[in-house]
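Chain A, query sequence.
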Amino acid sequence: MSAAELLAQQTAIITGGAQGLGFAVARSMAQHGARVALLDMQADKAQEAAGSLPGAGHIGLYCDVTSQEARSQAVTHVLQTFGRIDVLVNNAGIQYHAAAEDMPEDRWRQVFDVNVHAMMFMSREVAPTMFAQGAGVILNIGSISSLLGMPRRSVYVTTKTAVLGLTRALAVEFAQRGIRVNAIGPGYHRTALFEEYEQRGVLDAERIRRRIPMGRLGTPEDIGRAAVFFASPLAEYVTGQFLMVDGGYTAFGAPEDASL
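Chain A, predicted structure.
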């Protein structure tokens, strides 16, 4: 099987797919033969992004992943267009930074709604179709925050840790009905959001780079390639797993200024 055939004839839904890591996953999957549906709050941007993907027939749709009605409408549209759903990538996510003692309750709940609740209910939305097919892949996007605590990120760390529990629970529940469920943990990748944080002084890119054993920031394509692996037959006996794609960041336990 050639690389271009790894995902041939498969249909993939990617939430938050109009930009950033979601779009990188979409591009990698399209390069390997998948038909892609990009779901995003920005419908025009999703349609434009879908039109730029390699291959033909990709679609971009509006979807607020926190809305039951919007989720159902989007999945119905995908089924009407492609006739099947083989892969769901739960990529949509948001952050909120605040000291724990100042965390607004409404913000806490909002981040949970997007990062955890929507992931569960998008998975529930596609599961019946995958059960009927006897096969499917759900891929959840975690973070280095799934494993590490970070100041001023209590809600993000908590939600991304919850992603691991949800991944394992769904994996063991769905395994005998043909659905594999795994998760990817991106490290620090040079996306538009990363560059925005760098320009605002929220992140020090050079300091982060020195902390990464492989000596470089990740690229969005690093995540895309990992996603293709999990979605493809190469991972047909892999479920309930969490793969860090971080250049060794979470494996490195020495003091930050230690010589590599």
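The chain has a mean pLDDT of 95. The radius of gyration is 18 Å.
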